[in-house]
Structure formats: structure tokens, C-alpha cells
Design goal:
Order of helices and strands: EHEHEHEHEHEHEHEHEHEHHHHHH
Number of helices: 15
Strand order of the largest sheet: 2-1-3-4-5
Distance between the termini: 27 Å
Largest sheet: 5 strands, parallel
Length: 411
């Protein structure tokens, strides 16, 4: 494959993330792609000190990557503080999120993030995001490299109950030259479909009342009078787990996008499902080779870490595995303490941080278990916490064995 075009020279980026492993990975990725200076800090207060200490044009940061979930002051509050400080208000901001819950819509509109990117961030995704973030770096900027949009203007039905996701999808569709009607649940989607003409549906899977799966089955069964039972339906789901893809395809959906929705991914999905002159997409059930959840580790993510240089060794992967194997038992013990003492806020924060650490290695199953524990504690379902912790411990044992084999000299 061709090497991506280099980033403009002499750039300076600020990384704000309380997870030490994530900071290391992001710093190495940025340096490897040619960012001249990377300053990585672990808190909002440290980030504001760095930004306010560089207000002259020659020293200012060209952008800041903010982790959403941080203790005390999170990435949303930090971004709001930046936007309300005239000296640093125009700093380009990119929000990194590993959460299934999107930020508040009022905050998103006020803050004006340039991009929202899911974690863990691949090298290609980060490179593409930075080029889009700073498309005006050079005095004679080249045209941004964008995917070709579908050759016809589309009118889409969007079924999504979250206001932030509604805003994001609407902005992306308008940017691509399409129009849309937005409804908040599956029942409203069926009513809108019966009374209107649409080229495709973007269907959130988890909605109150009639969810996306049920609505899709109704459409495919021909229960919506006057509607095309084979209208393309693209699933929107908070998780990117292969099991969710299988559930979407089984319900009759044609394609699958994880949230927060990205412009490139949505463009590709619309091309596949609605491209001019293309045949309707035939759903295909995943085979064993499509089921990465059967493997404990994501080999692609590991390959990313292998290509990044470490401080003490040739590959960053070896150093991060050592840190993870050392720190995780301590975190699990703390989770037990927070559970026994009924401290939901501390448990939620630590479970979220642990999920992020698992994501760095592509440890999908353990990350899912940590997210399940986080959700149980965050939503007051305390009776589920012990079983969620047991599942997390089980997945930790599997992931630990895989990482220890990875680190053994015989590999």
C-alpha cells in the first residue's frame, strides 16, 4: 500500500489523557507520523497550564487531543474551559472517546470539536484525523483527501433517540450533500416510512419502546404499508463487537456502523448500500474467520504497537505488556474494595479506565466485561456488580495468559 502523505513539518500537539498507557501510545504514534513536538499530560489542570503558557504564535499548539473521561475535570469540561479563554479559544480540539454514551448536545454545539474519534485510535485513523484537523497547515493547502460520495443526493430516515448522535449524523449527512428526517424511536420510524419516501434508513439498535432490531424485522416482513421491504437499512450501534454485527445482520440490516459515527465510515456505507447503479447489498453471515471475538487479542492492534518504538526496547508493545501485567491485578483488587464499600463513583471510573487499557491491546472480551461492570454500577444495578466482577476476573485470566505467551522468549 502507498505510504500516506506526510504531515506538514514542525507541528506541536498536546495530548491529555489520564491513562498512562494511552498517553504513551498516542505520543509514539504522533512522533512516528512526523509531529515534531508532542506534550502529553494527565489532567485538565496540566493541559491548561501548557496551553496558557504558549500564547505567542510561534509557540502555540497546533491542536489538542482530549480524552473525554478523566477524573475531577473531564475532557468536555476542559474543552469548555479552553473555548471560554480568549487566549486559547481557537485551539483545534479533537475528542477521544471510548464511551458508549455520547456527550451532551448543548456542550457539543458550544465547544465545536473539530473531530470526535473512538479509542483505541489506529495509526491510519489518527493520521487521517490530523490531516483533516489541520487542512490549512500549509500556505497552499492541497485539497483534502476524501472518499467519493454517492453519485446521487440521498434522502435518509434517521432513527436515533440521542440528541448528540442526531446532531452528529445530521451534520455529516449535510456535509455530504444529503438530506434527512430524524425520529427518536422505532415506532416513529415505521410511521415516517409509511408516510414518506426515503433512499435508506440509519437505524439505531438500542432505542426505547420499539428498538431498531424490531423495527427492521417489521420492515423486512412487509408490515409497513406502501414501503419497500428491501430499503437499505444501516445499523447504528454503540458497540463494535462482532456479536452485535451478527445480531444486526440476522435482523435484516444491510450494513453496520459503530458510534460515534465517522464521516468516512458513513460515506463508505452509503456507497455500498446506495451507490448509483449498484446492486442491493446481500447480507452475509460472518464465518469463523470473521469472528475476532474468538481470539483473546486483536492481532492488528498488536501489530500497531509492535511498529512503535519503545523507550527501553525496540518495540513499545513489550513495555506496555509489562506495565499492563503489573498494574491490572492492583486495579482488580481496588475494584473489589470499591464494590465491598459500595463506592459506585470510584468503581465506575476505575472500570472505565481498565476498559481503556484493555482496548490498547485489542482485548475485546475483557474490555466488554469492564464496560458491563461500569454500566451496572453507573445505572444503579448494584445487584449485578458481583457477577460482572466475576466475569471480568475470568476474562482477565484469559487475557493474561495470552499476553504472557506473547511476552515469552519462545514467541
Amino acid at each position: 500500500a502507498d505510504e500516506p502523505p506526510p504531515l506538514p513539518p514542525e507541528q506541536s500537539m498536546l495530548v491529555v489523557d489520564d491513562n498512562a498507557t494511552s498517553r504513551i501510545i498516542l505520543e509514539r504514534q504522533l512522533r512516528q507520523m512526523g509531529v515534531a513536538e508532542v506534550v502529553a499530560v494527565d489532567s485538565a489542570s496540566a493541559a491548561l497550564r501548557e496551553l496558557r503558557g504558549r500564547t505567542t504564535a510561534a509557540r502555540r499548539f497546533n491542536g489538542a487531543l482530549l480524552d473525554w473521561h478523566m477524573p475531577e475535570v473531564d475532557g468536555i469540561a476542559l474543552a469548555l474551559a479552553i473555548r471560554t479563554d480568549p487566549a486559547i479559544a481557537d485551539t483545534p480540539l479533537l475528542l477521544l472517546s471510548s464511551s458508549v454514551q455520547p456527550p451532551d448536545s448543548v456542550m457539543v454545539e458550544a465547544i465545536k470539536f473539530q473531530l470526535i474519534v473512538p479509542k483505541p485510535v489506529s495509526m491510519e485513523q489518527l493520521h487521517r484525523s490530523l490531516r483533516e484537523l489541520h487542512s490549512n497547515w500549509s500556505s497552499t493547502p492541497e485539497k483534502p483527501q476524501r472518499l467519493e460520495v454517492p453519485r446521487t443526493r440521498l434522502h435518509l430516515l434517521v432513527a436515533e433517540d440521542n440528541e448528540v448522535n442526531q446532531l452528529v449524523v445530521r451534520l455529516i449527512l449535510e456535509k455530504l450533500g444529503h438530506t434527512c428526517k430524524i425520529v427518536s424511536d422505532g415506532a416513529a420510524a415505521l410511521i415516517a416510512l409509511a408516510g414518506g419516501s426515503f433512499d435508506a434508513i440509519l437505524m439505531d439498535c438500542q432505542m426505547p419502546g420499539v428498538d431498531g432490531y424490531t423495527a427492521t424485522r417489521c420492515i423486512r416482513a412487509g408490515e409497513v404499508k406502501g414501503a419497500d421491504a428491501r430499503i437499505p437499512i444501516i445499523a447504528l450501534t454503540a458497540y463494535a463487537m462482532p456479536g452485535d454485527r451478527l445480531k444486526c445482520i440476522s435482523a435484516g440490516m444491510d450494513d453496520y456502523l459503530s458510534k460515534p459515527v465517522q464521516t468516512a465510515a458513513l460515506t463508505e456505507a452509503l456507497q455500498r448500500c446506495c451507490g448509483a447503479g449498484s446492486e442491493p447489498l446481500t447480507p452475509r453471515l460472518p464465518t469463523e474467520s470473521d469472528r475476532p471475538e474468538l481470539a483473546v487479542l486483536d492481532l492488528n492492534q498488536l501489530d500497531v504497537l509492535r511498529k512503535l518504538p519503545g523507550k527501553k526496547s525496540a518495540a513499545l508493545l513489550d513495555e506496555l505488556v509489562e506495565i499492563f501485567l503489573h498494574d491490572t491485578p492492583v486495579a482488580l483488587a481496588e475494584l473489589g474494595t470499591f464494590s465491598a464499600q459500595h463506592q459506585p463513583e470510584r468503581l465506575v471510573l476505575l472500570a472505565h479506565r481498565l476498559a481503556g487499557s484493555c482496548a490498547n491491546f485489542g482485548g475485546r472480551a475483557m474490555r466488554q466485561a469492564a464496560q458491563d461492570l461500569e454500566k451496572a454500577a453507573a445505572t444503579g444495578r448494584w445487584a449485578q456488580v458481583p457477577s460482572r466482577r466475576t466475569e471480568l476476573e475470568h476474562e482477565w485470566a484469559r487475557l493474561r495468559r495470552a499476553l504472557e505467551q506473547l511476552s515469552s522468549p519462545s514467541r
